[in-house]
Amino acid sequence: MSTQITIYTDYVCPYCLLAEHIVEEATQGLDVEIKWRPYELRPEPVPTLRGEDPYLPQVWNKSVYPMAERLGVPIKLPAISPQPRTDKAFEVFAMADEQGLGHAFSMRALKAFFQEEKDIGNPEVLADLGAEVGLEREAVLNVLANGTYRERHREALRHARDDMAITSVPTIVVGKQVFRGVPSPGELRRALDQAKTEADHNPHQPSPAVAGTTR
How many CB atoms lie within 10 A of CB 214? Predict the structure, then answer.
């Protein structure tokens, strides 16, 4: 039986890209099921961050860049300002998730923004990214135009906020343990081992996280 990891993410949070590197390292050789869940840090009508304001460069220089260098993850502060909203990207995620492509799309969106400076709020860009992971490009444009997954995304946000009390990302749930921020590989590995032990002793006990996408 695979052990479940649920990652609450926002595609404009650099720590979410860095955290996935930790997850990949900690899960080497393990039978795990990775699920992604959306959480918007700045939903409408909250203004998104601007690169020319002091806050972003300060945080990146003090924390993001040093952590990325330590982990060996290429990353840069995108020049796009203001930063895009991520509701449309998460609607595409919902579509991808239905087809077993949620993990692939989440990773593609994070890398597109933080390594290629692509505007992940632009439907045309999202359609390209969706096509790269196996979605039909025109189908992506259609679901965005029609709001096909809009209500599903809103329900996912409600679940994160109200049911799981998520207030920041990345938040990583492993069994009964919740990591708010980027854990070390050792911390995550120990949590996985503990979750597996508990699951082996209580095979019918449901996980606190809900369905998302499997890697």
Answer: 15
Say yes or no to pLDDT of 207 above 80. no
Q: Which residue has 């995304």 as its token pair?
A: 153
Helix (H) or strand (E) holding 65: helix 65-71
Beta bridge partners of 33: 4
Q: Is the pTM of this model over 0.70?
A: yes
State the helix-helix crossing angle for 123-133 and 87-98, rounded to 10 degrees. Answer: 20
AA letter at 113: F
DSSP β-bridge partners for residue 9: 38
Mean pLDDT of the chain: 94
Burial group, residue 65, by CB count within 10 angstroms (0-12, 13-18, 19+): middle
204 burial type by CB count under 10 A (0-12 exposed, 13-18 middle, 19+ buried):
exposed
Domains and CATH numbers, the chain: 3-201 (3.40.30.10)
Which residues make beta-bridge pairs with 173? 6, 178
